[in-house]
Amino acid sequence: MHPIVFLPLFIAVLIALSACTATKGSILILENPDGKGFTMTFKDWTSQNKCELSLDKGDELEVQTIREGGVIGLSIMGKKGSEPYVGSDLKSGRFTVTVSERDEYVIQITGKNASGKVRIKR
Q1: What pLDDT does residue 35 have?
Q2: What CATH class has 23-121?
Q3: More exposed terminus of the chain, fewer Cβ within 10 Å: N or C?
């Protein structure tokens, strides 16, 4: 067979493989039994993950972070477009975030060789 026949297939496979990013390390997400929060524990983790919470106007989220290594990012975004919190290099600590409207909120965590824990509760 002629090598030109394999060229389109080779290019397609190359594009598919370059578009994939492998998850590195591990993450464990545990939802609180009351449905009002969750805990994400990770070790040498490089990727992103998300959880969702339904919140009312004025609800407060308590965020606790324990960073043992790497870089941890966190964003809290409402599906209607609000962004109550965006942080790209969290340190260990505790803070609160108040939401301004009733919405379904997407809490996304990103990590680059991240080890530690993020706990969020209403």
Answers
A1: 83
A2: mainly beta
A3: N
Whole-number percent of the chain with pLDDT over 70: 82
Query: Measuring CA to CA, which residue among 90, 116, 119, 118 is closest to residue 25?
Result: 116
| pLDDT, tens only, 105-119 | 999 999 999 999 999
Residue 71 burial by Cβ neighbours in a 10 Å radius (0-12, 13-18, 19+) = middle
Are 61 and 99 spatial neighbours (Cβ–Cβ below 8 Å)?
A: yes
d(CA 76, CA 52): 9
Q: Is 109 exposed, middle or buried (0-12, 13-18, 19+ CB in 10 A)?
A: buried
Q: 0.85 exceeded by the pTM?
A: no
Query: Are 105 and 57 a contacting pair, CB within 8 Å?
Result: no
Structural domain boundaries in the chain: 23-121
